[in-house]
Design a protein that fits this description.
Number of strands: 11
Radius of gyration: 16 Å
Number of helices: 2
CATH superfamily: Deoxyuridine triphosphatase (dUTPase)
Number of domains: 1
Oligomer: single chain
CATH topology: Deoxyuridine 5'-Triphosphate Nucleotidohydrolase, Chain A
Helix content: under 10%
CATH architecture: Distorted Sandwich
CATH class: Mainly Beta
Structural class: mainly beta
Strand order of the largest sheet: 1-6-9-8
Largest sheet: 4 strands, antiparallel
Order of helices and strands: HEEEEEEEHEEEE
Length: about 170
């Protein structure tokens, strides 16, 4: 079961959903719109191996600036908002207007673990050249009611404050 926008507001006010900063204007019918921050990560290795720590380059975009994506480019960004819940399962989706520009956001990693609280990393892939201004409403988070015993996330991405490159090398494969 998905929460409506009005229920999201109630759960934020009750402390059962974390959205910080919270802006009532970003609440939609059944989601909360997320802004993209000013930090982006690009991988610099020619070939990525999930067993090895990837080399990366971090870019900080100036206020009022934008990040450019060439067709076929991939970058990691993150939400300006800290989000999460110990009671609901957040799921990230691209805003439809952004998707219609050819920007894929969180296509394969949209499910946020219950108990994970931090800035969410956006996996961003451009099918067309596009410029994304900082603070753009790029994605939306919906909250789902879990069924069964809740076990809170305590993993390696907990408490992220910036985009996070893959940490798969820390896990046994």
């Amino acid at each position: 079961m998905i929460l409506t926008g009005k229920q999201i507001i109630q759960e934020v006010n009750a402390g059962r959903i974390v959205i910080d900063p919270f802006c009532i204007e970003q609440v939609t019918t059944n989601a909360y719109d997320l802004r993209v921050s000013d930090l982006f990560i690009e991988y610099t290795d020619d070939i990525l191996d999930p067993r090895k720590k990837p080399n990366t380059k971090i870019s900080k975009i100036q206020p009022g600036g934008h990040v450019h994506f060439d067709k076929g480019s991939f970058k990691l960004g993150c939400s300006k908002e800290i989000i999460g819940s110990d009671h609901f399962v957040p799921i990230i989706h691209a805003k439809s207007g952004i998707a219609r520009l050819g920007m894929f956001v969180h296509v394969t990693a949209d499910l946020i673990d219950i108990g994970s609280i931090g800035k969410t990393t956006f996996q961003m892939y451009a099918t067309l050249p596009v410029d994304i201004p900082v603070d753009t409403l790029i994605a939306q988070v919906s909250f789902w009611v879990p069924k069964g015993k809740i076990v809170l996330y305590k993993g390696k991405y907990q408490g992220s404050s910036m985009p996070m490159a893959s940490l798969s090398y820390q896990s046994s494969l």
